[in-house]
Amino acid sequence: MIGQSIVLAADVPFPPSVEDFYLPSILPWGEHNSYWFTKITALLWISVAAIIIYFLVSYRKPQLVPTKKQWIAESLYGFVRNNIAVDMLGKRGINFAPYLTTLFVFILLMNFWAIVPIAQISPNSHIAFPAILAVISYVMFIYIGMKHHGGLKYFKHALIPPAPWFILPLLIPIEFFSTFLVRPFSLAVRLFANMFAGHMLLLVFTLGGFAMLNANAWFAPFSLVSWVMTIALTFLEFLVICLQAYVFTVLTASYLQGALADEH
Amino acid sequence: MAAQKPPNAPSGDDEPAPPDTGMGMTAVAYLFSGMLVWGAIGLLVDHWVGTKGIFAGIGAVVGIGGGVYLIVRRLGA
Fold first, then answer.
1. In terms of Cα–Cα distance, which of B76, B40, B77, B75 is closest to B60?
2. Which ipTM was obtained for this model?
3. How many Cβ atoms are within 10 Å of A21's Cβ, its own excluded?
4. Does A59 contact B at CB distance below 8 Å?
5. Do B4 and A78 touch (CB under 8 A)?
6. Which CA distances in Å does A3 have to A9, A210, A221?
7. What residue in B sits closest to A182 (Cα-Cα)?
């Protein structure tokens, strides 16, 4: 078994590089200039399908005493609604609970592929997916703010802090930068970088074990340590997966809260 | 859809106000934004005047000051 692995691992490249995130094409199989359908695409569609089907099925015949399926779906929704949406946005939070729940569950599942055997890469480790999610949050909080405050008054509310007039020239650029430039960027990069680094870390420790074994048979114990570390890091990765899904949702709710806030 | 009732008041009398998790991020964003924006403006001034970074330094310090002021005004009591 180990002998086989070594033979298999003989051509394992080490150290892993960014190239390892660009997976081969599935449809058409092994094509080199058509990347319309790769594992990333497949995982995305599986995630979307799984979420839609799961929530439809678990709530098809709602019971007063919920079944296990229904209980999990209700707990997920209840968690986001009560602990994120209502906590941060008050009564109005209930209006945003469906979107926030969808966001939370989607990111959670997309991240979770990072530690599912065979899948073992999260689509969110490509910047495109977090970027689109961040753009949705960005457009949404600006739109909600404009609707709440009435058109351009929102920007006055967002950009002009309660301060004496003579420091406003100092503060307005900071407000603009932190609200309208840093927010979408940091949302996207935080999620992307966490998933990217997580995948890279697992690759380094897995492939590093093989690399050491290939280099010298005496390194076998160290390879073993490396693989044990991989298992430990997988648990750490699970923590990061849940935390990042939560953070993204909470920050989106927080931005909405800022857009809905009245003058103080 | 959830069977649980949403809590009546987000910050009722009997329980402490919910911790605003986003607030920490906002504060950090203000600090960094202040430093970056005014540091960058200072750098441009440096470029224009021909100095070697004195205005970037001043800009960064002033920017951080502005960031702290914003945190106090926006997030403080």
1. B40
2. 0.73
3. 15
4. yes
5. yes
6. 10, 11, 15
7. B29
